[in-house]
Amino acid sequence: MTTLLFARHGQASFGQKNYDKLSSLGAQQATLLGQHYAHTQRKIDAIVTGSLVRQQDSATHFLNAYNTQDASTLTSSTPKIIEELNEFNHKDVFIKLDPSFATEAGIMNAVAQAPVPKVRLAELFNEAMIRWHSGQHDEDYLESWPQFNLRVQQALQKLMTYAEQQQAKNVLIFTSGGVIAAITASLLNQGSDSPSMTAYQINRSLINTGVTSIVLRGDRPRLLSLNEHTHLYHQGQSLVSWH
Predict the structure, then answer these.
(1) For domain 2-87+143-232, is the CATH number 3.40.190.290?
(2) N or C: which end of the chain has fewer CB within 10 A?
(3) pTM metric for this prediction
(4) What is the rounded CA–CA span in Å between residue 243 and residue 229?
(5) Which contacts of 224-231 are long-range, i.e. CB under 8 A and separated by 24 or more positions?
(6) How far apart are CA 108 and CA 183, in angstroms?
(7) What is residue 12's DSSP assignment?
């Protein structure tokens, strides 16, 4: 039996010009996950990431902490990259809600008069996500949600094949919230034609470096756990983040 452990990357640089890099908190979160797996002697046979910087750097910080504890059982400490594990283009999704959001000035103009600009920004992004998931504007996007979901399901198949080839019992995958949510929704909505909004609701709850476990029995994946993040609580809730 093989378990695929999907870890959302550590906190990225939300609100910065370059979102695709870990914040200091994000690096700490990934380090804590590595320490936690080492201390609990969680055996990891292989690591996989997408090609995004925040995903690969999360794997690096995890490995540095995991190997330091002399707990590593990895055949190779070099993660395999599967590009289909990359997140959707959140900038494109946001801009398609309002073309003025293509510039920082346009975004600031939309939130500046709000009592709490950050809250208003989150509300606008929520509106953009609902529009993307609705299926009513698919032709507007560089990658519609159905196209993204198809790509993610292809990534899952590649992971299953890779795990079998490596004879790996535990594969840790550093990816992003949208990917994890789409895979989880597909497992929860088997037989349903519309997992999109389920994926959206799941995505909103996923914590940075939270781990979702999927068990492979034959060729049929099953959800084992969702969004595990106990490794972040040794300092209370101060290390828990969603963005």
Answers:
(1) no
(2) N
(3) 0.92
(4) 15
(5) 224/3, 226/184, 226/202, 230/36, 231/32, 231/33, 231/35, 231/36
(6) 34
(7) B
Dihedral, CA of residue 61, residue 59, residue 62 and residue 129, to nearest 10: 100
Q: Domains of the chain: which residue ranges?
A: 2-87+143-232, 89-142
Kindly give the confidence (pLDDT) of every residue in the chain, 243 residues in length, as a single tens digit, with 9 standing for 90 and above. 899 999 999 999 876 778 899 999 999 999 999 999 999 989 999 999 999 999 999 999 999 999 876 555 565 578 999 999 999 999 999 999 999 999 989 999 999 989 999 899 999 999 999 999 999 999 999 999 999 999 999 999 999 999 999 999 999 999 999 999 999 999 997 655 578 889 999 999 999 999 999 999 877 899 999 999 999 987 778 899 987
Nearest to 59 by CA among 23, 4, 24, 8: 8
Distance, first Cα to last Cα, the chain: 33
Task: Indicate the DSSP class of residue 43.
Answer: -
Residue 211 has phi, psi (to 5 degrees) of -115, 130
Residue 28 near residue 239, CB atoms below 8 Å: yes
Residues 6 or more apart whose CB falls under 8 angstroms from that of 92 comprise: 141, 142, 143
Tell me the C-alpha distance between 30 and 229, whole Å. Answer: 11
Which residue bears the tokens 């890779």?
162
Residues in the chain: 243
DSSP per-residue string spanning 29-44: HHHHHHHHHHHTT---
